[in-house]
Amino acid sequence: MNPRATEIVKKLSPAQRAGQCVLVGVVPSDSPEYIANLIDSQCLAGIFLLGHWTSRPQLEAMLRAVNSVSPQGIKPIVATDHEGGEIQNVRVPGVNRLPSQEALARMSPAKAQAVVTTGARQLANLGIHMVFSPVAGVIDPDLGVRNKPIAKHHRGFGTNPRLCGQYSAAVIAGHRKAGIISTTKHFPGIGRITEDTDFKTDGITDAKTTRHDRYLESFRMALDAGSEAVMIASAYYSKIDPGTLGLFSSKVMTDMLRGDFGYQGLIVSDDLGSSVSVFSVDGGHRASKFVSAGGDLAITADPGLAGPMIRALTSIATSTPGKKRLANAASHVINVKLAHSLTK
Question: What is the Cα–Cα distance from 11 to 17, expressed in whole angstroms?
Answer without folding.
Answer: 9
